[in-house]
Design brief:
3 helices, three-stranded antiparallel β-sheet, alpha+beta, about 10% strand, about 90 residues
């Protein structure tokens, strides 16, 4: 197996509670990941769709509720913004 065949692994540095919440949700989505006490969460990113799902899950755990509500309202009204400061 060449290095081109090995999927990239994203290392997510999260606090303990966020790490386990993200880990559980990624497992529910059947995204390959591993997490052990005192170590960062490691996620295999096989596709663009997986990368988007990982981003979405981490945003749900890390973003303030007001940001999530504002994003949802913009989507509902068709005003999508892709920046971090949306």
């Amino acid at each position: 197996m060449s290095t081109a065949d090995v999927p990239p692994i994203a290392t997510l540095e999260l606090d303990c509670l966020e790490r386990w919440s993200v880990f559980r949700r990624l497992k529910e989505l059947s995204i390959p990941c591993q997490c052990s006490c005192g170590h960062p969460l490691e996620v295999k990113i096989n596709t663009v769709a997986t990368a988007i799902q990982v981003w979405s899950v981490t945003q749900q755990c890390l973003s303030p509720r007001s940001t999530l509500v504002a994003r949802l309202e913009r989507c509902w009204h068709g005003k999508v913004s892709y920046g971090r400061d949306d």
